[in-house]
Every structure is written in structure tokens, then in C-alpha cells.
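Consider this pair:
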Amino acid sequence: MLNNTLPYGEDSGKTVATLPVPPANSGHSSPIWVSTDLFLLTPRDPEALDRDLQIDQRCYRRLDPEYFAWLKVRMHALRAAVIAGRVSGVAFEAMRLRFNEVQAQAITMFGEADLLRAVRALDVERYRPPMPEQREPVTPRNARPEPQVCQERIVRARGLIDAIRDQALALGWTLDRLYFHEGYDGRRLSTRSGLICFIGPAHQIGEVARESIEIIGPPPREVRTRFYNPDVEQPWIRRVAL
């Protein structure tokens, strides 16, 4: 800390947290908890609380010199992200103000010398900040299927395509347009994904034409959609000669 400040910029002239330094051990000894995004928590009964807390999705840790050092390193990283254009100046300013408050509390509680020693000694790679509790995941509607389910679906779809393969190839389809499914188990569909990726567990294949192949949905509705061949001209595309 230089001139009663704890800088989080490396170079002179950079933004620093400029707060008056209260004397160490000035009577404020009640522990406080600080979240990883720099919000403060001062509980009424600190002795009853663990070192790490989680309130909703926000994780807190009881402030100590090592945790303060880690938060300071985070401010360095955030400032670098602002310079690189990945974080807005407004977001940085909000974090800077919260860091200033944490810094003032830390200096009061632990003293400048202890904080500086913690900053110099911190092993960023080994330090483990508070992390959210691991809870049973809630499966969203669009969650990717399990690999075994994917495999069974692909096997069934391949059998349907095998039955119309020769007809489709004769009409101008390629094997990739019919069968390509790399990354299908991760649901990473792309313009390269073949017909095989769009056939559901209860689908059937209907009309096979040069421009498209019909996919028939499950009963009772049997909704019909089409998988279009991007390698051939489609009737709705008009090419204008220049």
C-alpha cells in the first residue's frame, strides 16, 4: 500500500482505491462475510456461522487477509477485462466502490502490513474461493439426451435411411446429407447435420424427392415436415442473371 492506499492497478497513474487508512485494531473486530462479487454481510451472531455461506446464488466467506488478497487479484483481472473491452466501465465502477468498502474494513481489522504480506504470499492457482453448493440438477426441457438414448435413436434413424438410400442417391442426395451426425449427442446441430439428426424416436420417412425428404411425425397427428437438400435448387429460389 502506497501513500495510505491499496492499489489494484499495476502502474502509476492507474485507478486506485483511495480511502483513508484507519489505524489497525481500532476497535472494529466483529467478523464480516464478503461475497465473491464484493457484497458485505454482518451477521448478528457470527459465532454461529461457518466460514463459508451461501444465500440464494451468492457465496460469502468470512473475511481474512488471504481472502482479501484473492479479492484484490480479482480486481486486477476485472480491470484488465475493462481495458480489453470485455467488461463495461460502469460494471467496473460498481465493483470498485464495493472493493473500496471491503478494503477499508480489511485494513481496520487486520492492518496494512498483514494484508500486504497476504497479497505477496497468495498462490492464486491453489487458493479455493467459496463455491456454490452442488445440488441435484434440474433437467430442463431442452436438456440433451443421455448418450445411450442418442445412440439408440441414431441406430433406428440409420435403419430408416438405409431403406431409402439408393433412391435418394439416385435423385442427387449425398451420403453426408443423409447420414452426417458428428456431435449429435451434444445437440450441436449445424448446417452440416444430415437427415439422420432430425428423425425422432417415433418418426417415419415419407416421400423422397430431389429437393426434400418428408419426415412423418408420430401418430395420431402424424405432422409432416421436410428436410431440404441444400445442394440443389429449390422451387422458391429465383436466380437472377446479372
